[in-house]
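Quick review question:
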């Protein structure tokens, strides 16, 4: 960095020679991610179609760079061999090793034109992205004189797209890669295979795409309702698709031209229903009708995985290969003769260690081919492979723990980085997965807490957003979930925390979204954002405020909200069941008695519940409210039946209550779940309001 700093000083002095320096306030430049150091100077510089370019790159990289430049909206003139003749000079600094390859210095001056210096092509590319954003804001003929010194905060700034649950053609991916590059995102994690469809051609196993790349229904809900059957391309009404190896190469090359590494994910040993439908012999003995986990005891499983990975390694030059590792059911392994034998032979004490054993085999295989393994954070269970990188999704804590113990980690925690969740009030938003992750929440995520040791910081590779597409059937919807939230990931990954500002970012993101819209993409319209549930910000006062609550059946430890006081603390839930306001009851009724302290007249008793089929929580099937003066003899006030079908999709918030006149000291509120239907055993409520 020292070298870059001296380049920057040189830039500043150079410009000072012709104009007076002033430091800009953050609001002036609409740049995302915001650069780490900016100086603005009086005057402007113009670019034209004739502006010649000098590019200090050689060989294949030069060819690729020029190809990208030729198609970029910058529309510059010819390439010249003499820097003196060029208006845009893209220069490699001499001492490459000292500089971050993505760092750059951009100088714009009236007399000297545009000069970008970096230690590698990536930095030149990012300098040009900044220049392009300036042309978007100011036009090509009024570029402000300035000096920008910039370098990424984190190395991995990623986006994952799940193409198994819904298939998106390569042209869609090209568009997203263009946007990623423009905002300096540099890793595309391609979730290629999962239970809903195998989407990469494997020449050794053509059956995978012949038999498991299509399914009977496009909608996952309809597919579930119809028994989760796979189909072939010829099946009438079938939905699906896959990428040929040629198409995979195209995507990898397109990304590489934009300095984006494509990390493929071949999911194992869980989420493997589609593989097991094609090769049932790879499932455990007695694994049931629809096995989900590969049998780790079967040597054929390892042969299969290595054969698949051999082709994957040929297609993807990425140093990292993602092997999944999340959410294996693990139950079939306990009863499988082969898995038990493997556990005995390898002295594995648990099914977690059995999974860990498989991951270690994969790591060895990848190492033998010069690659490294990444997996979801469950790969930590049963012992983490020595060199594995942890992708932390169940919360930041797993990644932080991995980093603290000397492992590399990438953070993509569900609370902040899952783009399949609602980004706005559910009633105004396209049907999405239960959860609420608006732009600000994504932006405010701090992947590197101050408490992390310096050594552990070195292991934090970066962050990533994940787009799971169960309920995202169209390209338009996928784009609206990705953008502009992806820009928040870009800025958090690139801009140092002390340079971040949500107010500035939001204005830039809004502008960026309208530019994307002009280019034919479908970003979410921030101008129409409704925001959090209004009641979430209010504290309610009512007759039961602060009154003690006796639980006749307990709430779940997973979702305690405010604990024993949650139902009378005045705090109401928002759009997310996990915002710490909604108290959960799992597998039992909610049955509570509130003590008002003294007998008194009551006119109204009610509580809100939420339902979201995708989040697996439902309204109670019935609510019973009764009152008492002695806490022994209760007089029923009402029984409210639920009439909302539990299969209804979408987020629903309903009040179950009573209005009338009564005298009460004790109020019993019972919300029943449908015991005949275990699926309906999740209830969430936030406050029992008594007036
Ligand atoms: C995951 O969301 N199961 C990685
Ligand atoms: Zn088995």
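Suggested answer, residue by residue:
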């Amino acid at each position: 960095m020292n070298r870059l700093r001296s380049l920057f000083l040189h830039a500043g002095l150079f410009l000072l020679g012709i104009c007076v320096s002033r430091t800009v306030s953050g609001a002036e430049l609409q740049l995302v991610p915001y650069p780490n150091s900016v100086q603005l100077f009086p005057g402007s510089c113009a670019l034209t179609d004739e502006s010649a370019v000098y590019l200090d790159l050689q060989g294949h990289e030069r060819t690729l760079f020029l190809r990208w430049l030729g198609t970029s909206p910058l529309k510059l003139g010819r390439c010249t061999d003499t820097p003196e003749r060029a208006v845009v000079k893209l220069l490699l600094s001499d001492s490459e090793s000292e500089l971050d390859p993505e760092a750059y210095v951009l100088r714009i001056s009236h007399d000297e034109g545009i000069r970008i210096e970096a230690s590698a092509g990536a930095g030149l590319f990012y300098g040009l992205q900044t220049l392009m954003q300036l042309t978007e804001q100011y036009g090509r003929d009024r570029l402000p004189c300035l000096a920008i010194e910039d370098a990424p905060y984190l190395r991995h700034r990623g986006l994952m797209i799940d193409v198994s649950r819904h298939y998106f053609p390569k042209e869609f991916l090209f568009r997203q890669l263009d946007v990623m590059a423009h905002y300096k995102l540099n890793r595309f994690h391609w979730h290629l295979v999962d239970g809903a469809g195998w989407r990469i051609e494997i020449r050794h196993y053509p059956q995978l795409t012949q038999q498991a790349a299509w399914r009977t229904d496009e909608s996952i809900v309809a597919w579930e309702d119809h028994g989760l059957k796979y189909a072939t391309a010829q099946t009438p009404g079938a939905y699906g698709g896959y990428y040929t190896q040629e198409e995979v190469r195209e995507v990898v090359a397109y990304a590489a031209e934009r300095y984006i590494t494509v990390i493929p994910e071949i999911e194992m040993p869980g989420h493997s229903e589609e593989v097991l439908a094609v090769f049932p012999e790879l499932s455990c003995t007695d694994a049931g009708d629809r096995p989900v986990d590969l049998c780790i005891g079967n040597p054929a499983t390892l042969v299969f995985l290595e054969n698949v990975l051999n082709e994957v390694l040929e297609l993807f030059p990425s140093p990292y290969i993602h092997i999944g590792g999340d959410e294996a059911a693990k139950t079939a392994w306990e009863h499988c003769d082969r898995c038990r034998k493997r556990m005995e032979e390898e002295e594995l004490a648990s099914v977690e260690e059995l999974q860990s054993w498989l991951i270690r085999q994969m790591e060895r295989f990848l190492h033998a081919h010069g690659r490294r393994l990444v997996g979801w954070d469950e790969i930590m269970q049963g012992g983490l492979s020595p060199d594995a990188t942890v992708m932390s999704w169940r919360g930041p804590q797993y990644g932080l723990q991995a980093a603290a113990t000397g492992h590399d980690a990438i953070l993509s925690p569900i609370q902040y980085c899952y783009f399949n969740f609602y980004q706005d009030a559910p009633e105004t938003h396209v049907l999405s997965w239960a959860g609420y992750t608006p732009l600000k929440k994504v932006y405010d995520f701090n992947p590197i807490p101050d408490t992390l040791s310096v050594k552990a910081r070195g292991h934090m590779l970066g962050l990533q957003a994940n787009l799971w597409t169960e309920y995202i059937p169209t390209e338009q919807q996928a784009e609206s979930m990705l953008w502009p939230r992806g820009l928040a990931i870009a800025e958090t990954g690139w801009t140092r925390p002390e340079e971040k500002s949500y107010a500035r970012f939001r204005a830039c993101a809004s502008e960026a979204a309208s530019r994307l819209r002009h280019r034919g993409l479908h970003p979410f319209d921030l101008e129409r954002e409704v925001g959090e549930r209004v009641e979430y910000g209010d504290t309610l006062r009512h007759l039961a405020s602060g009154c003690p609550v006796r639980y006749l059946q307990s709430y779940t430890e997973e979702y305690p909200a405010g604990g024993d006081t949650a139902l009378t603390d005045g705090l109401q839930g928002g759009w997310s069941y996990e915002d710490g306001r909604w108290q959960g009851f799992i597998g039992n009724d909610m049955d509570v008695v509130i003590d008002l302290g003294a007998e008194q007249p009551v006119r109204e008793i009610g509580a809100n519940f939420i339902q979201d089929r995708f989040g697996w929580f439902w309204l109670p099937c019935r609510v019973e409210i009764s009152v008492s003066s002695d806490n022994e003899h209760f007089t029923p006030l009402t029984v409210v039946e639920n009439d909302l079908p539990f299969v209804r999709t979408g987020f629903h918030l309903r009040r179950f209550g009573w209005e009338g006149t009564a005298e009460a000291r004790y109020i019993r509120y019972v919300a029943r779940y449908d015991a005949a239907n275990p699926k309906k055993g999740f209830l969430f409520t936030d406050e029992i309001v008594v007036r």
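Why it works: The first helix runs from residue 2 to 16. The CA atoms of residues 466 and 677 lie 32 Å apart.
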